[in-house]
Amino acid sequence: xxxxxxxxxxxxxxxxxxxxxxxxxxxxxxxxxxxxxxxxxxxxxxxxxxxxxxxxxxxxxxxxxxxxxxxxxxxxxxxxxxxxxxxxxxxxxxxxxxxx
Length: 100
Prior knowledge:
There is one protein chain. This protein is mostly beta strands. The protein is built from one helix and five strands; from the N terminus they run E-E-E-H-E-E. It has one helix at residues 56-62, and strands at 4-18, 24-38, 41-54, 70-81, 87-98. It has a five-stranded mixed barrel with strand order 1-2-3-5-4. A hairpin with a 5-residue loop joins strand 1 (4-18) and strand 2 (24-38). The two termini are 28 Å apart. Pfam families: SSB_1. InterPro entries: NA-bd_OB-fold, Primosome_PriB/ssb, Prisomal_replication_PriB. This is Replication restart protein PriB. Keywords: DNA replication, DNA-binding, Primosome.
């Protein structure tokens, strides 16, 4: 099982919902900023990525999230298509760890 791990800060207020099947969902956005080395040169890395956390186990990990909170999120990437027909890359969280 391949996982992506992203560290960053919650930059949009989490939205909580429940599917018709009763599955709890939390959607939030993580902002990542760092300095990386590429071809022996420093490069600023910046990304905002939407995160979807689903299920009762994830509900416990997301119940106290707030803007400005530092996190490390692990999961898998998936493509979501919006109502407008545009697709975006979304991180489906399988583990969330608060960074103090």
